[in-house]
Design goal:
Helices cover about 15% and strands about 30% of the residues. The protein is an alpha+beta fold.
């Protein structure tokens, strides 16, 4: 499953899980990114390859489907890299959220697709009402809520729907698959406290791959 005779991950980059469906999705993303400028059209063109990955069975290693006791997101949430471009332009990862657990309210800062592979989740999406100039405060309101089951997915095109949190509603951990146009777990992004409006910079990190060493003072 992880050895098809192709190039492999070096220092946590490349194909950390190598299957035909993942190859097809990454190839399609590269092709459509080069040929389609409009983000909405690009994401639409990627939907068939993404749906095929979600529908395929047996490709996710068991080790990448487990909670992470050292999670930086808390509650045992595991973020497992499946593919990472070395230039930071694309990543594919599995997010494992244990039963009864929820992510912090957070953003992604990249366009892409997010879909359910196993279990069920309830998603709460926020709209930012302020202009974003204050890096430590944000005014948020709930814009929508939805339940996600295996095979369902949605586009992510910031700033629309970029701030959310998810909660596992199934009796088993939920596993969602994310295709995003950055190195999501290694970029500095934001946690939000909707009640107080507090904003905190954070890097979630991958459970199975290191982030590049940051320079002193490089965080927001």
């Amino acid at each position: 499953m992880c050895d098809l005779g192709h190039d492999h991950a070096h220092d946590g980059f490349g194909f950390l899980v190598d299957t035909p469906e993942i190859r097809a999705l990454v190839d399609a993303t590269s092709r459509h990114t080069a040929n389609i400028d409009d983000l909405n059209e690009r994401v639409e063109a990627l939907k068939p390859a993404f749906a095929k990955l979600l529908a395929a069975d047996g490709w996710l290693p068991n080790a990448f489907a487990q909670p992470d006791a050292k999670s930086r997101m808390g509650d045992g949430i595991g973020q497992y890299a499946l593919y990472r471009a070395e230039d930071g332009s694309l990543c594919l990862f599995a997010l494992v959220v244990p039963a009864g657990a929820a992510t912090p309210v957070h953003d992604h800062l990249a366009w892409g697709l997010v879909g359910m592979y196993r279990g069920e989740q309830h998603e709460t999406v926020y709209r930012r009402l302020d202009d974003g100039r204050n890096e430590r405060q944000a005014q948020l309101e709930v814009s929508k809520e939805q339940t996600l089951v295996p095979g369902e997915f949605y586009p992510l095109i910031p700033p629309l729907d970029d701030i959310h949190y998810v909660r596992t509603t199934s009796a088993t951990p939920s596993i969602s698959i994310h295709l995003l146009a950055n190195d999501t777990a290694c970029v500095w992004r934001h946690k939000f406290e909707p009640g107080s409006g507090a904003v905190t910079a954070f890097r979630s990190g991958y459970a199975n791959a290191p982030c590049p060493t940051e320079e002193a003072g490089s965080s927001p």
